């Protein structure tokens, strides 16, 4: 049994769900402790914490929170820890710095969407994040969550391996059913493309759109001037959200940047077609492409569409809403893509290999290329 510490400074939304899922897999064979930071959205994630795992809130608040968290970790991480694994930018920075205090601990870092990809940051700030990642890349092994993120890790010259984000795929999935609503799930934010979503809905007044998610105070203005065909729904418990995805006509995610979207993975795991942006990580969730194009410039894929402009979204949605046979074909392709590449039963074995102690035989944990 290994002693494993997970550190996540931003314990909310997709990153929090991925860490909880990972810890659930590890607790059967290992001693697991999670240090987590508080932010908007954390309260929702605290509702269903596994009592078999130790959950410790980081104390950092305000402008000195990162220094406070580093000092706290240095004092409270056990010296005999075998693995310390940081998630997202600051969680990764914490373990790269604190990990040096624990000579025997293996240090892992999962970016879950590099901060230098954030388009809401200035060019200078993004450049600083890039150089910080580059200069600290040798302090750990980077564990990426999808092929596009692994390509970025390689450009940073980090030691890396890829373990795709995974989802539990139901034994029986109905790929013949056609729902009514076009569903989007995520924070109301520029990152998730909520402004683009409003433009899409306004261009298709005959379609019914639902956005499930809330806005942080700085993004409340994005809720102004909502088209009449948009219904807003607050975040729901996970099982309710999954049922909503299962019943959707298809899932729309016009995000500007991502790690590897859990919403898209859960959608294809339920056999739903997806309409998304040309963000590279989102394209990882698409199978194909059709008509011999490359993934980088393709519009139509076997299980959905990758869009670069408003006109692309309108064309994709119009096709899926007007052709039930095409929609059912893409639903079947989504389920196949999910089972081949993102099934939690496959991913679990790769995580198990990652946390092998040196005395145990280690099998290769590198994830295979995406199978299309």
Question: What does this protein look like?
Answer:
With 372 residues, the protein is α/β, with parallel strands linked by helices. It has two domains: 3-166 and 343-354, 3-Layer(aba) Sandwich (Rossmann fold); 182-341, Rossmann fold (3-Layer(aba) Sandwich), CATH 3.40.50.2000. The chain is 37% helix and 16% strand. It has 13 helices and 14 strands. It has helices at residues 13-26, 42-45, 65-76, 88-98, 123-136, 147-155, 194-203, 238-247, 262-269, 280-283, 310-322, 324-341, 344-354; strands at residues 3-8, 31-36, 54-57, 83-87, 106-110, 141-144, 160-162, 182-185, 209-212, 230-233, 250-253, 274-277, 300-301, 304-307. It has a seven-stranded parallel sheet with strand order 3-2-1-4-5-6-7. β2 (31-36), α2 (42-45) and β3 (54-57) form a beta-alpha-beta unit. α9 crosses α12 (324-341). It starts with a strand and ends in an 18-residue tail after the last helix. The relative contact order is 0.11. Residues 361-368 have low confidence and may be disordered.
